Amino acid sequence: MADWIPISLTDFKQFLSTNTPPPLPRPPAVKPVESTADDVAKLNQWFQIYWIGIAAGLPLLVICIGLGGLVVSVVFQCFILHKLWSMIPADEAQTTPGKAVGFLFIPFFNFYWNFIAFHGLAQALNTQTERYSIPNGKVDENLSLIYCILICCSLIPYVNFLTGIGVLVIGIILLKEMKDAGIALIQQQTS
Q1: 29 found inside a domain
Q2: How many helices (H) and strands (E) does the chain have?
Q3: CB-based contact 3:149 (threshold 8 Å)
Q4: Domain range for residue 71?
Q5: How is residue 104 annotated by DSSP?
Q6: Whole-model pTM above 0.85?
Q7: Per-residue pLDDT for the chain (191 aa), expressed as one digit of tens each?
Q8: Burial of 123 (0-12, 13-18, 19+ CB in 10 A)
Q9: What's the pLDDT score for residue 76?
Q10: Which residue in 132, 115, 137 sits closest to 182, CA to CA?
Q11: DSSP 161
Q12: Rounded CA gap, 159 and 153, in Å?
């Protein structure tokens, strides 16, 4: 407005504080959940159960028994995802481990959330492996992005048969790369 004047020239200037407030304190650095050598065995075992669940579930799906194997593989994929997210420092993580897994079960929102849970995890793991100079712990971020895009493409009728195969194959490769990066981080921490 053209006739406005600064508050310091009005009767309200008595309410202005001349002291500047102190700066906000920095939050303390949050360390990731400590991992042990036992966690390496857990991750390997969980991935093995995940793989067996898929390998047994798909052929047996024809007679409906395989559904149990596929459910088991999804459960252990969630275990692995939760553990890997818990290894990322909280002040650097895009999400918490619980949200990373839990939000994947929200219908339709999960198509977006895959980009956070999987692609975001690939980026976070790569950041951690670069920080600790781990040469063999790299996750292919392009592969994680392709995985998320293929999941979104599974909504398209008739195309979903082809994308389903891609999601299955790329998902196994991606989860193995993420598991290996997590194991490399654990071994770096425990050595």
Answers
A1: no
A2: 7, 0
A3: no
A4: 36-190
A5: G
A6: no
A7: 677 888 778 887 777 766 766 777 765 555 556 777 799 999 999 999 998 888 888 777 666 666 778 888 999 999 999 999 999 998 899 999 999 999 999 999 999 999 999 999 999 999 999 998 888 889 999 999 999 999 999 999 999 888 989 999 999 999 999 999 999 999 888 87
A8: middle
A9: 95
A10: 137
A11: H
A12: 7
Encoding tokens for residue 160? 């979903």
Q: Structure tokens of 6?
A: 């600064």
Residue type, position 176, single letter: K
pLDDT score recorded for residue 42:
94
Angle at the Cα of 150 (from 141 to 169), degrees rounded to 5? 75
pLDDT score, position 172: 95
Can you tell me the distance from the alpha carbon of 25 to that of 67, in angstroms, rounded to the nearest whole number?
Answer: 52
Q: What is d(CA 134, CA 54) in angstroms, rounded to the nearest whole number?
A: 30
Helices (H), 61-159: 66-86, 97-102, 109-114, 121-131, 141-153
Residue 47 lies in a domain: yes
The CA-based diameter of the chain, rounded to the nearest angstrom, is 83
Q: How many domains does the chain have?
A: 1
Q: Which two tokens stand for residue 87?
A: 């290894």
Is residue 25 assigned to a domain? no
DSSP secondary-structure letter at 13? G
Residue 12 within any structural domain of the chain: no
User: What is the C-alpha separation between 49 and 42, in angstroms, rounded?
Assistant: 10
Structure tokens at 59: 């052929």
